[in-house]
Amino acid sequence: MNTAVSDVLKTTLKTIVAAGLLAGASSAFAQSSVQLYGQVDEWVGSQKFPGNKASAQVSGGGMSTSYWGLKGAEDLGNGYKAIFTLEDFFLAQNGQYGRFSGDSFFSRNAYVGIESPYGTVTAGRLTTHLFVSTILFNPFIDSYVFSPMVAHVYLGLGTFPTYSTDQGVTGDSGWNNAVQYSTPNFGGLSGSVMYGLGNTAGQNSAKKWSGQVLYFHGPFAATAVYQYVNFNNVPLDLGSFSTSGVPGLKSQSVAQLGASYDMKFVKFFAQYMYTYNDQQITSWHVNTAQGGVSVPLGTGTVMASYAYSRDGGGFDQTRQTAALGYDYPLSKRTDIYAAYMYDHISSQSTGDTFGVGIRAKF
Asked: What is the rounded average pLDDT for all residues in the chain?
């Protein structure tokens, strides 16, 4: 064969092989993805908890807790995907990771799983169904500073000595050592179940499980959640109440219903929660209800919410919390807000919080 022709054929073959490799690499990259995202939220104002004194604040998480995350997916073919999520809370006011001193690094979410036509299975640290239900059906969503419902659900048990109350839910907004199955969406209806283990020898009773049903159809949405936690003398990641005036807690059952209806000029929110606490000697229950609205005003939104809780036994308390706020978008990713929250627990001085803040998403 002519040397020149041979050289041309060799060069052509190399070009074809290289093109094939590049195409294969491009195809592989197209079938997998990794995304960086998050938000930074800071507010300035004053905060006074029930039974305490007021303090000036330059703090984080006024409307939403600041966090950053990484998530990815790889197409495995035939409708299957491998997925993962790693999300870390942080305090922008001092640069500390987590929501408080001692919080784990990826405390928002840290899991891996498989998506399929038959549903999704994930395992790791997972956001609880109760938290999802709580934030979706109140106008202040996930604000730990200004949302009355978040205060009644998550800022109750375990808040001693900030203020004394036996109301609220034991545990965090995320569960460690958890496995979850979520169904596909059937015309707006979906469901999921979650189970968490103690992961320590001799602590097999330190378990927790929950189930949730969600429904979205046009302007209407609703949820139903049931959560049960059971533990030994030291409930591991659920927190201990031996110093909060609620010793010997054996288990807790929580049922929550929520609904919303969007009429465009106003959106209505409603929630009801029943909490049953089983102690070694006695037991008590708490009824909680929340109603709220969000109303478009100009390009922004006015938010109002009221929550009420009442003990049946226990400390024999009532708690009333009301909030009013306005959120104004500066762009698709950045908004500013102003809000006020009134908080009163029976036999304690009134608490109130007010401030202005900015939130930037990326």
From this structure: 88
